[in-house]
Design goal:
With 112 residues, the chain is an alpha+beta fold. The protein has a single domain, classed as Zincin-like, CATH 3.30.2010. It is built from three helices and three strands, in the order H-E-E-E-H-H. Helix 1 runs parallel beside helix 2 and helix 2 packs across helix 3. The radius of gyration is 14 Å and the shape is globular.
């Protein structure tokens, strides 16, 4: 399956789960990170940097979808493998968490 097809399948899965997906340009010096899952008005939303390459978009989206109950929907085996690989990758990193959208702060600002 091509990377473009994998991304399309992940986006379709997100839609079936009721998760909106948006690619937005992250302003330089404004946000750090690649994106991730957030909640807007009580609804799940995956936002990712529009400049990401397809493999990076797959990683962000697969990681976000891994937080949902996938037993309630049909998931093709290759797509399930992508999501599980993203989950294994997060466990391997352990305490070394990369900043995602929810943890990002504008550069130059210290947290209170």
């Amino acid at each position: 399956m091509t990377p473009g097809r994998v991304l399309a399948e992940l986006e379709a899965l997100a839609a079936r789960l009721g998760v909106a997906v948006r690619a937005e340009p992250f302003g330089k010096g404004v946000l750090e990170g690649r994106g991730g899952l957030c909640w807007l008005d009580g609804k799940p939303l995956v936002v990712m940097d529009a400049t990401l390459a397809v493999p990076e978009r797959i990683a962000v989206l697969a990681g976000a979808l891994g937080k949902f109950d996938l037993e309630v929907v049909s998931v093709p085996p290759q797509i399930r493998e992508q999501i599980e690989a993203a989950q294994r990758g997060k466990k391997k990193r352990g305490a070394k968490k990369r900043p995602g959208l929810a943890r990002a702060r504008p550069r130059g600002r210290k947290s209170p």
